[in-house]
Design a protein that fits this description.
This protein is an alpha+beta fold. 34% of the residues lie in helices and 31% in strands. The longest helix is centred in the C-terminal third of the chain and has 20 residues, at 159-178.
Length: 195
């Protein structure tokens, strides 16, 4: 079973997270940041990952440490649940429309951390959420999971739609990438023999 349970405790956050890559999309998310709860619920649902996250963070300061540290722990959980990545498809991509917004997401479970980020979010905040934290989340995720992730905004005017489209698109692209290719279930999908 491709699952992981991770904890991270610092002076700024206390996080517990469980992940099942072969789930049904159910989630229980309590990060202390309402907008991030919403985004992670969508990410789990569209990725068909079972995801539980609890975080007690210093949100009296702002949401930065909470958002970044959850990105780290989620990335670690993916890396752990994937193991040596034997049999996975490896690549996933999706073009996701959401009203006026169009988001492209592409992922490679390469073992190399890289984020290509091209979102033009027009407002500084959605509610109380700082929109600059979207990039911080995905940077933390790719570094901890050692994947290559490209996110491109092809169209969009509404900040909520742009961010929501991103979490949905990345969830669906990851769903493709982590899926097992039955024809190659015992193979590492690389000529190097390791990812």
């Amino acid at each position: 079973m491709r699952t992981s349970e991770n904890k991270r405790t610092t002076a700024e956050t206390d996080i517990a997270l469980s992940l099942n890559l072969d789930g049904t999309g159910k989630s229980e998310i309590d990060t202390g940041c309402g907008f991030l709860n919403h985004m992670l619920t969508l990410f789990a649902r569209h990725g068909r990952f079972d995801l539980t996250v609890t975080c007690h963070g210093d949100t009296d300061v702002d949401d930065h440490h909470t958002v970044e540290d959850i990105g780290i722990v989620l990335g670690q959980a993916f890396a752990e649940a994937l193991g040596d990545k034997r049999g996975v498809v490896r690549y996933g991509s999706l073009m996701l429309p959401m009203d006026e917004t169009l988001i492209a997401a592409a992922v490679d479970l390469s073992g190399r951390a890289y984020l290509g980020y091209a979102l033009d979010i027009p407002t500084e905040k959605v509610g109380t959420f700082d929109c600059e934290l979207v990039k911080e989340f995905w940077l933390a995720f790719v570094r901890a999971s050692a994947c290559t992730l490209h996110i491109r905004q092809m169209a969009g005017e509404n900040s909520h739609h742009i961010i929501e489209g991103t979490f949905k698109a990345v969830g669906r692209a990851l769903r493709q990438a982590v899926s097992v290719d039955a024809a190659f279930a015992d193979e590492i999908p690389s000529t190097k023999g390791v990812l």
